[in-house]
Amino acid sequence: MEIVANTKKHVTGKIKITNVGSIYGKETAQIYIQNLESRVEKPRQELKAFVKVGLNPGESKTVEFFLDRRSFAWYNVKKSIWQVDRGDYNLKIGSSSRDIRLEKTVALEMGTTNIRPISGDTYISEIINQDGLHESLVASGLQTAIESISSYDSNRELMENLPLRAIIMIGANVEQVNKFIELANN
Q1: How distant, in Å, are the alpha carbons of 50, 109, 134 from that of 60?
Q2: On the chain, which terminus has fewer CB atoms closer than 10 Å, C or N?
């Protein structure tokens, strides 16, 4: 399998199919994908395209396949959108789902980076290091508490490796934590 193009809009590839038999035959090459990035449980492989070819004995043909953005998308119920995860996908080609003959991992750049949702178990260091959470910290009232953790000298590493729910120990309240979680995930 040769990947010809891996753009922000599609993936195209070529495969060579040979008739090793003694009579004319037809083959259907089925292209499956496996999402290796999604944090949502996904099927092990999904049929996304197929290519049919007829071949005389001993004849070989190179056929192309085309997978667009929609081929890699899954419906994100929480966001009400079709989402494509940026990262690794296995492309599998075979004559059926149980007869995979070629497999190749492709790194997609057409999707979005999969960011884990914020929860009470999210480490404070992840919150400090994640872009785009400043407004949620301010609106929830947790900005001061997070800044005070960053200002600790001797215990900074220890404090940053606590889960968010532990911020209550340094003066935040449960309502602020819950409000932050809600704002950060929306």
Answers
A1: 17, 32, 58
A2: C
Q: Count H helices, E strands: the chain? A: 6, 9
Closest CA to 81 of 71, 73, 92: 73
Which has the closest alpha carbon to 73: 46, 107, 55? 46
- Band of pLDDT at residue 160, cut at 50, 70 and 90: confident
pLDDT of residue 88: 92
Query: Of the candidates 63, 64, 51, 60, which has an alpha carbon nearest to the alpha carbon of residue 20?
Result: 60
SS (H, E, C) 129-154: HCCCCHHHHHHHCCHHHHHHHHHCCC
| d(C-alpha 14, C-alpha 117), whole Å | 38
